Amino acid sequence: MTKLKWGMIGGGEGSQIGPAHRLGAQADGLFEMTAGALDHRPEVGRDYAQRLGIAADRAYGDWQEMLAGEKDRDDRIDLVTVATPNATHFEITKAFLEAGFNVLCEKPMTMTVEEGEEIVRVAEKTGKICAVNYCYSAYPMVRQARAMVRAGEIGKVRLVVTNFAHGHHGDATDADNPRVRWRYDPAMAGVSGQFADCGIHALHMASFICDDEVEKLSADFASTIASRELEDDAMLNFRMRGGTIGRLWTSSVAIGRQHGFDIQVFGETGGLRWASEQPNQLIYTPVGGRTQVIEKGEDGLYEDAQRLSRVAIAHPEGFPLAVANIYCDLADAIRGEARDGLPGAEAGVRSMAAVETAVASAKADGVWMDARPPMFR
Ligand code: NAI
């Protein structure tokens, strides 16, 4: 099978998420890196792209040049990844979809619900794939959890509790560090800080495993460091369409917690627990029974969990291979075999609706509000 052609915008040298995309896209031999506009400094981006093996004529200075250069080629890229800072996602994603490219956009997909709805419409109209990189949902044992819930192994889900709380912005003496400060500045980050950055991963995960959507929510936001305009800590209560009760805590000042992303799902006949710092294990307790550790790679896992495991049992598979699983599902989708686990533009706009609703609810002292995007009400 010939490799698909892949390009990336953003994700330049020294960026946080760029390496995970390069490793992920190329891990299974499904994509080759063919084009890129990797940096906000055109010459730096061109140089880095060529050092990564991209031909000089496809090492672009910016995304507009890349769009113009790729769109009329016979051998144009099959997929473009948008891994730039948040405020640029909408215009780049929209422009590439409209020109007939498939897109993988980093989260958050857009800055507003209106923009998110526009992306959903453009993707529908063009028939192109618009995926959003909720990569934690592609860990094999998260797929196992989802399959177990779908198969009724824990009965009807009563309660989901999730945290994405780390402590890496908890040092007040480091609050003015430019790499930290922009996240709490509305001019750079938008209406929400920590919730839009990390909380939406947790909320997406709750929907993903429970196979349900958030319908309404109540939020409490706090800026624990006085100079921060946007929240660095948030607590949400939510309800899902099927009646499941949800609790979510996200924080960047939880000193001592490292990555800090975990989820527990409690059903009528059992409970499940998964944590990103021990991603190969899913903890399962049937009601009245013993707690069991289900290991990635063991016999009897659901198909999706088996398919997305590569190395043998007990060997760790980490974050870049979870991103690689998103690319596996994308390659299948581009070749015409849609995978229902691939997070799409609908997931992206649902997150934006949750962000705007949480901001409004927090401002109104936690009033419960409809958290669905208008287009899905
Ligand atoms: P970063 O600041 O570390 O790197 C951004 C990169 O984009 C730099 O190489 C910069 O030169 C380049 N860039 C900026 N503007 C550009 C433009 N207009 N054209 C081309 N290149 C441009 O940022 P980081 O942390 O890598 O985040 C990027 C995106 O990835 C964000 O939207 C963030 O939310 C998301 N992200 C997602 C994660 C996940 O788990 N899915 C984890 C970390 C980040």
Task: Give the topology.
Elements: E1 4-10, H1 18-26, E2 31-37, H2 42-51, H3 63-71, E3 79-83, H4 89-98, E4 102-105, H5 113-126, E5 130-132, H6 140-150, E6 157-165, H7 178-181, H8 186-189, H9 194-210, E7 214-222, E8 233-240, E9 245-251, E10 261-267, E11 270-275, E12 281-286, E13 292-295, H10 303-307, H11 319-334, H12 345-363, E14 369-370
Helix pairs in contact: 1-11, 4-5, 5-12, 9-12
The chain binds 1,4-dihydronicotinamide adenine dinucleotide (NAI).
1,4-dihydronicotinamide adenine dinucleotide (NAI) is lined by residues 9-12, 15-18, 37, 39-40, 62-63, 83-86, 88, 106-107, 133, 135.
Description of the molecule:
The protein has 377 residues and is α/β, with parallel strands linked by helices. It has helices at 18-26, 42-51, 63-71, 89-98, 113-126, 140-150, 178-181, 186-189, 194-210, 303-307, 319-334, 345-363; strands spanning 4-10, 31-37, 79-83, 102-105, 130-132, 157-165, 214-222, 233-240, 245-251, 261-267, 270-275, 281-286, 292-295, 369-370. The protein has a nine-stranded mixed β-sheet. Helix 1 crosses helix 11 (319-334) and helix 4 packs parallel to helix 5. The radius of gyration is 20 Å and the shape is globular. The N and C termini lie far apart (42 Å). The mean pLDDT is 97. Bound molecules: 1,4-dihydronicotinamide adenine dinucleotide.
Write the H/E string, N to C: EHEHHEHEHEHEHHHEEEEEEEHHHE
Count of individual helical segments: 12
**What characterizes the major β-sheet?**
9 strands, mixed
How many DSSP E strands? 14
Which regions contain 5 or more consecutive residues with pLDDT less than 50? none
Listed once per kind, the bound small molecules are:
1,4-dihydronicotinamide adenine dinucleotide
Work out the helicity level: 25-40%
Rg calc = 20 Å
Q: Whole-number average pLDDT?
A: 97
Reading side by side through the largest sheet, how are the strands ordered? 13-12-11-10-6-9-8-7-14
* Structural class determined from secondary elements: alpha/beta
How many angstroms does the end-to-end distance come to? Answer: 42 Å
The percentage of residues in β strands lies in: 15-25%
Shape: globular
